[in-house]
Amino acid sequence: MDKETEQQLKCLRKKLREAKKAPSSAVTAKAKTAQETDHALFLAAMKGVQVLTSPATVQHTRPIPSPWPKGLHVASPILNDTMSDFWPWDELEAGEELMHMKPGQKLDTLRKLKRGEWRVEAELDLHGENIDSARRQVAQFLHHCQQRQLRCARIIHGKGLSSTDGIPVLKLKLKNWLVQMPEVLAFAQANPFQGSAGAVLILIKSGQP
Description:
Layout: H1 3-45, E1 99-101, H2 109-114, E2 122-125, H3 131-147, E3 152-156, H4 169-180, E4 184-189, E5 199-204
Parallel strand pairs: 2-3
Antiparallel strand pairs: 1-4, 3-5, 4-5
Helix pairs in contact: 3-4
C-alpha cells in the first residue's frame, strides 16, 4: 500500500470516529437543556414560597375513653321505673353514713361490706355529673355489673365540698336510688382505704347465668 492510499484511509477512519461521536454529543446537550428547563420551571413554581423554620405540628386532643367496655354499653330497663328522687327520707344528718340492706340478707352482710371483705370488681366516678346524668350512669353501671356477674362495686359520689352550702346532693340522691334498685342487695359507706365518706360499696344481686 502506497503512502497516498494509507493517508486516505487514515482520513476516512477519522471521519467515521467523528461521525459516531456527533449523535452522542447532541443527545447529551439535549438532556442538559431539558434539565436546565426543569430546574427553571421548578424555581418559577416555588417563587414566593417561604421555608419553614420548624416543622408544622398539630396538637390533637386525646378523646376521653368510655368507662364501658366496647359492645357492653346497655341501657338499664329500670331507669325510669324505680329510680325516683322522691323517697321517705329527704335529707341526711351531718356525718350520717350511707347504709342499707334488703330483707333476707345475713346479719353480718353490712359489716363485711363496710370492712372491705368483698373484692371491688367495678367502679363508677360521679365527680362532675349533675343529677340526671348521674342517675343514668348509676342505672347503666349497676345493670351492666349484674349482666357480667359482678358482685361488688364502688360508686364515688364525692363529699359535696364544692356544692352549695357543702351539702352532698349526689350522696342523698344516690341513697334514694340504690334503695329502690332491684339489683342492689345492700350498700355501705366505704372504709377509709376505699373512699370513706366520698364513696359507697354496693353488693349486687347475682344475675341470670
